[in-house]
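Field reference: sequence -> structure
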Amino acid sequence: MENISINSKNNGAGANADATQSVDTTRDLEHLARLIKDIDVAMLTTKDGSGNMRARPMGTLNGSGFDGTLYFFTDAGSPKVNEIESDHQVNLTYSDRKSQHYVSVTGQARVTRDEKKIRELWNPIMKAWFPKGLDDPSLALLEVEVSEAEYWDSPNSTVVQLVGFAKALLTGERYKAGKDGHVKVHVPH
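Structure field:
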C-alpha cells in the first residue's frame, strides 16, 4: 500500500519542505478528485445515539472542484443532522465498478446554512427534494472536511483482472488487484 502524508504546516524543515508539501497536497487532492469526480453518489455513514453505524446515499455537489471539502444538500430536520451534531466524525464511500475506483473518505462534518455556498451549488433538479427551491426552510448544506482517504484503483481491464485472478488460483500466489493507496489530508481551511 502506498502511503502519502500531506501536512500543510511547516515542521521546521525550511522553505523547500513547505514547497514540497504544497506540491504533494495539490497532487494528492487532484488524484482524489479524479477518483470521485464521476461518482455522483456517496454513502454517508454516521453514528446514531446508540452507537450504531447508519449509512445513506448522498449526492456529492462539488461543482467548482475539490479543495479538501465535500458538499451535500440535506434536510435540516433529518436524523443524520442530529447524528452529526452529536458526533462530527463521518465516513463517505464512493464506488464505481465500471472504472474500478473505490474510495473511502473520513472527515469532520458540519451542517450549515451558508446562503452563498448553497446558491453556488444549487441545481434546479434539487427541487425534487426541496420543493420551495432556495427558499425551502428545510434546505441545509452538509460540509465534510476530509482528513483521510483510502483508495483502490485498478487501471487494468476486467479481462486482465480475471487472468490475474485465475493465475493466483492456479499458482497459489496471492492475487494482486491493482494500485491502492492511503492518503492523509490536512487541508488548511
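Note: Residues 2-184 form a domain with the Pnp Oxidase; Chain A fold (CATH 2.30.110.10).
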